């Protein structure tokens, strides 16, 4: 008898799960049906700022696999269809057709279910939040809406609310499009959730250098509109004119559907799973931005919305939903971004997170160059390493620098993943040539300095 796997969500986690399941089981053995409320599947949300900024001109370039390609591979994808309820006792989902002229609902049965509902942007609960011209940027359709607004309305002034990855990347994108850009955030430094203040200050410097006006420590209090369209953003200190507003205030797990079905939700608000990505209900799996994960440094449950995690978790869910037995080993939050002239990267914990987890750390920060100092194109790079005291286990690292800086974080992520100590890492045999690095790579210099402080 043919089994039926239903997947809720058509992006990284959901379609990776579906694809992995199809590779393991033939259509005669397993029917796979996926529901996606938007028009796109398997797309790069990380590429949205580059599409808005016109570095990427063709939206199709951000789509790894279209619905038609998935269907040719034996996965029955239904775009424009939202799952509005899950009945784990009857083993079915209620699906609503949200395409223009749709609205009909129907029940679809499942034997195995993968919940990959992603995340939803935080929207400040302030007056005027529903004005036209205020955009969250989470899905590819959101990115298309922002791009159309820029192309068709010819706005002159933009305000970014929030200083995280998306907010900063969108600020740069709108500067590229010729807008006057201001950024406001309730925290004191950009990227406060992922960088220490000293490293965040370098990012603020880069934003100011390209003309972004920054107002930190100022939560938004409301939006003014005219004829339904946003015209200004208000804080407790000022009113900023705006023709377009982008919300970069972070995201939260979209776990409502699972919670309503009686599936356990973790302390973070994400869907709780075991290491096999199975939820509290047998045969129901979850993956991606909607789930919580284990932080390998602190052991705490965390929600970190990254496509790297989503793809890996989707792979695990797809294998185990088809009879496999593999584990997702946790996360350390490794991420990189390009913010104006700077590459910004981080992994592990910050000083704040270490203190919250009760981890005593020493910190070492060094300034160097990305190449041999005499070689053309050598640019400044700042590396910060956090090491546990006593013992010297590396628990966190941050890098800010120009071209050639960001991907160095991967060596430190590998060290954290394998619980290496700073003195051990300082002797790792890394490559050297003047076009790529000084003879002592900056990450090794930072590790050596941290070891000296222990």
Mean pLDDT score: 96
Biggest sheet: strands, sense, closure? Answer: 5 strands, parallel
Give me the secondary-structure category. Answer: alpha/beta
* Percent helix: 25-40%
Q: What proportion strand?
A: 25-35%
Rg measurement, Å: 23 Å
In terms of per-residue confidence, which ranges show pLDDT below 50 for 5 or more consecutive residues?
none
Helical element count? 12
Number of strands: 25
What is this entry, summarized?
By secondary structure, the protein is an alpha/beta fold. The protein is built from 12 helices and 25 strands.
Task: Describe this structure as you would to a colleague.
The protein has 454 residues and is of the alpha/beta class. It contains twelve helices and 25 strands. The chain has helices at 12-24, 48-52, 67-72, 140-153, 165-176, 197-209, 256-260, 307-321, 351-356, 409-417, 422-425, 442-453; strands spanning 3-8, 30-36, 76-79, 81-87, 92-97, 105-109, 112-115, 119-121, 134-136, 157-161, 180-185, 213-216, 220-226, 229-235, 239-241, 244-247, 251-253, 284-286, 293-294, 301-302, 335-339, 342-348, 361-369, 380-388, 394-401. A hairpin with a 7-residue loop joins strand 5 and strand 6 (105-109). Helix 1 (12-24) runs parallel beside helix 8 (307-321).
Quickly list its features.
454 residues; globular; five-stranded parallel sheet; 25 strands; single chain
Layout of strands and helices, then pairs:
Layout: E1 3-8, H1 12-24, E2 30-36, H2 48-52, H3 67-72, E3 76-79, E4 81-87, E5 92-97, E6 105-109, E7 112-115, E8 119-121, E9 134-136, H4 140-153, E10 157-161, H5 165-176, E11 180-185, H6 197-209, E12 213-216, E13 220-226, E14 229-235, E15 239-241, E16 244-247, E17 251-253, H7 256-260, E18 284-286, E19 293-294, E20 301-302, H8 307-321, E21 335-339, E22 342-348, H9 351-356, E23 361-369, E24 380-388, E25 394-401, H10 409-417, H11 422-425, H12 442-453
Parallel strand pairs: 1-2, 1-7, 2-3, 7-18, 9-16, 10-11, 10-16, 11-12
Antiparallel strand pairs: 4-5, 5-6, 8-17, 13-14, 14-15, 19-20, 21-22, 22-25, 23-24, 24-25
Helix pairs in contact: 1-8
